[in-house]
Q: What sequence folds into this?
């Protein structure tokens, strides 16, 4: 199977290839055995991530899923309960790891159209101390909200949830797979959000273009314990400096250009809104994720539409669920490709 070039691939921002600068840095990276704590490039990446997110220490992990799971296993024990959104990545897209590997009961709550759980519902989901009940221990939040048009949730929401968590002795972990997209859209530093949570994981390999990896951050003590959980999950790596070298560029420079992706997403949304047969509210597009629906009266199925786009135009789009499709903008997507996508969809649906 031939690789799909990311310049025609709107399926996700995970399809991004490392940049030439990253490949050069990876080739030249200073390395050591990171399980012995001797890889200087990994150490530099963890320090930078902690600094950017306003926490004491960081830990390189293999993926966003692993970062979230390591965090949950560190914060909670078997028999504990984690409150989370019913459409959260941690609930829907991580193979049930909380329950399977952590013995942690997920307590899903409904979310609004931007992915926020209701504060009153969070409060009433927190259980008292009774031998019948799992112990409420953890709240899992997400920003940007992947299932909700990549909504960039404001710091005051996190502050409010933090107040509740503090009052009941719960910890908060933030799944910040696309936190830098959220911060960019809000025009605020990531710390404005992360000051209200105990731990955060960010993906280096989505819009930030690194080939592999996420970083988990928290207090020194939390990271010390998290290191054991990472080992348990098979996520401790040796000369991982070759990966961290790309991660450093991701954090230093790729975080600075995400507004371009958001502008492209907005242009794409406005273009799609002009096509009869497609339903989209460009106002709901806050970051780089563009969700849109195929109208009920359109004859072609979503699967056939995606297939035609691929075969006839060489463009790749994601089928999300039902009649919902998703286009994601990222570093490799040039303005001409956004125009081509709008044109191609217009022709197919004409
Ligand atoms: C991508 C993503 C993750 C982690 O995914 P991996 O593929 O394991 O890196 C976690 N949460 C959200 C919201 C994501 O979009």
A:
């Amino acid at each position: 199977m031939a690789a799909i070039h990311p310049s025609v691939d709107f399926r996700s921002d995970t399809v991004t290839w490392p940049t030439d600068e990253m490949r050069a840095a990876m080739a030249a990276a200073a390395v050591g055995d990171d399980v012995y704590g001797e890889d200087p490039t990994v150490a530099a990446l963890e320090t930078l991530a902690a600094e950017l997110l306003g926490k004491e220490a960081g830990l390189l992990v293999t993926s966003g899923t692993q970062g979230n799971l390591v965090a949950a296993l560190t914060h909670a024990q078997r028999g504990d309960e984690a409150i989370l959104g019913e459409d959260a990545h941690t609930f829907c897209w991580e193979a049930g790891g909380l329950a399977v590997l952590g013995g942690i009961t997920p307590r899903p709550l409904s979310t609004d159209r931007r992915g926020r759980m209701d504060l009153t519902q969070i409060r009433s989901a927190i259980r008292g101390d009774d031998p019948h009940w799992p112990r409420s221990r953890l709240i899992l939040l997400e920003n940007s909200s992947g299932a909700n048009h990549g909504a960039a949730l404001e710091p005051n929401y996190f502050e409010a949830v933090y107040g509740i968590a503090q009052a009941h002795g719960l910890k908060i972990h933030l799944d910040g797979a696309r936190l830098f997209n959220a911060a960019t859209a809000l025009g605020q530093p990531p710390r404005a959000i992360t000051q209200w949570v105990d731990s955060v994981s960010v993906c280096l390999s989505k819009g930030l273009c690194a080939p592999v990896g996420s970083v988990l951050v928290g207090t020194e003590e939390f990271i010390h314990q998290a290191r054991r959980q990472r080992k348990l999950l098979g996520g401790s790596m040796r000369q991982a400096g070759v990966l961290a070298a790309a991660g450093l560029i991701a954090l230093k420079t790729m975080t600075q250009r995400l507004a371009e992706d958001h502008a492209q997403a907005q242009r794409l949304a406005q273009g799609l809104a002009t096509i009869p047969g497609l339903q989209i509210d460009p106002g709901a597009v806050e970051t780089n994720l563009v969700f849109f629906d195929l109208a009920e009266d359109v004859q072609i199925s979503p699967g056939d539409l995606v297939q035609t786009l691929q075969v006839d135009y060489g463009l790749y789009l994601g089928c999300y669920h039902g009649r919902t499709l998703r286009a994601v903008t990222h570093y490799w997507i040039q303005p001409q490709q956004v125009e081509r996508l709008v044109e191609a969809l217009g022709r197919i649906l004409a």
